[in-house]
Write a structure and sequence with these properties.
199 residues; alpha+beta; 8-stranded mixed β-sheet; 5 helices
């Protein structure tokens, strides 16, 4: 949980749960990381926070509901389940660049600064054990969904393992990802909002 809380603390320096009237995106560098961390906030009037968090934690149904997720499933882990932590495998297809995959631990955290929060972090050993031939493995992947009345936030910090990709793909997945981050984050929020709005 330490990884989520330190990441979340940085995110919370850039967001507010009230007074947001249009899409906002902020990003910032972190020493030692080749990509910026970022967070977007989008007003979504009438969003049901509990329903959205339930969708966020329903990782077995991400495929078809969230863009670029081509495989996503829970992984049995009694120790994590006892702490109400969801362990899951995910593979994402990045247009024109290929796939990235990882194993993550996902949990609901206490209300923070007016936001309901569900956050995840990379499971290092489990991700390292995945096949680098099947897809590039993530070097780090921290993220969080934030929900306040009429407002959805999505925060992310991620990059692939350098040894799993060539130089041009590495640049596209780091420097290029920073350039595209605002648009991608907004699309993710819009997808989750639509899914949460379905009956």
């Amino acid at each position: 949980m330490g990884q989520e809380t330190s990441f979340l603390a940085r995110v919370m320096q850039h967001v507010r749960s009230t007074g947001v009237t249009s899409y906002q995106f902020a990003h910032w560098p972190v020493p030692g990381k080749p990509t910026d961390e970022g967070v977007g906030l989008l007003p979504v009037p009438g969003i049901d926070a509990e329903r959205l968090i339930a969708r966020v934690l329903d990782v077995d149904h991400y495929v078809g509901n969230l863009n670029h997720v081509v495989e996503c499933r829970t992984v049995a882990d009694a120790a994590l389940a006892a702490r109400k932590v969801v362990r899951f495998y995910q593979r994402i297809k990045i247009p024109m660049l290929g796939d990235v995959h990882h194993e993550l631990a996902f949990e609901r955290l206490p209300v923070t600064n007016g936001f309901e929060v569900a956050a995840w972090h990379l499971l290092d050993k489990e991700t390292a054990a995945l096949s680098a031939k099947a897809a590039a493995r993530s070097q780090y992947c921290d993220g969080a969904w934030l929900v306040a009345p009429g407002l959805i936030g999505y925060a992310l910090s991620s990059a692939p393992r350098r040894e799993d990709v060539g130089f041009l793909k590495w640049k596209a997945l780091t420097t290029g990802a920073d350039v595209a981050a605002s648009k991608v984050v907004r699309e993710n929020i819009e997808c989750m909002a639509r899914w949460a709005g379905k009956s």
